[in-house]
Every structure is written in structure tokens, then in C-alpha cells.
Write a structure and sequence with these properties.
Blueprint: E1 13-18, E2 24-29, E3 33-40, E4 45-52, H1 53-62, H2 65-71, H3 79-94
Antiparallel strand pairs: 1-2, 3-4
Length: 101
């Protein structure tokens, strides 16, 4: 399982651990990833995603998963999230909730 947020694309960063004597050694800053179940209003079902805590707050701020995905850039989203975005867009255009597959 990769250490990458499915909604924002946030990944591990590299930096230095600096000791008291100012010796620098490599270290990794990992994103705070959580396994969450989000509800899609347009699809009428829940979706399990692995997202960072920051993305979870942003989803709430934007008014839910559907609103977040419609505003999100395609290059930041995972393959699963892109497929979800496509289904939500298709469901909104047709005006009826899509069948869960």
C-alpha cells in the first residue's frame, strides 16, 4: 500500500533530522493517512478511501465528497478517485443516482 493520499496526492517528503550538535541525517516526513468511509450523495453509496487528515478536513469544508471531487485537479487524484469523479459527473448529468456496481 503506497503512502499517498487518494484525494490530494500528498506523499512522503524527505528532510533532515538535526541533532543538538547540528549533525544532519536523512529522515522522512510521512503524511497522516487514515482509512475512512465517505458517503457520495450523487451515487447514493459509501466509498472507502485512504486519505490524509488534511484532505478529510477539506472534504468537510467544501461540503462533502462530491463537491470536493468536482473541484479537485485530475492529476492529484488516484485512479479510484478519478473513476469516482467520472461516475459522480455522469450521475449529476443524468439527474438520477447511479446504480452501485
Amino acid at each position: 500500500m503506497s503512502r499517498r493520499c487518494e484525494l490530494t496526492g500528498k506523499t512522503a517528503q524527505v528532510g533532515h533530522r538535526v541533532s543538538h550538535s547540528n549533525i544532519k541525517t536523512k529522515r522522512r516526513f510521512l503524511p497522516n493517512l487514515l482509512n475512512v468511509t465517505l458517503i457520495s450523495d450523487a451515487l447514493g453509496r459509501s466509498v472507502k478511501l485512504r486519505v490524509c487528515a488534511n484532505a478529510l478536513r477539506t472534504v468537510d469544508h467544501r461540503g462533502g465528497l462530491d463537491a470536493f471531487l468536482m473541484k479537485a485537479k485530475d492529476e492529484d487524484l488516484s485512479r479510484r478517485a478519478l473513476d469516482l469523479k467520472r461516475r459522480i459527473r455522469k450521475s449529476r448529468e443524468s439527474g438520477t443516482p447511479a446504480a452501485a456496481s
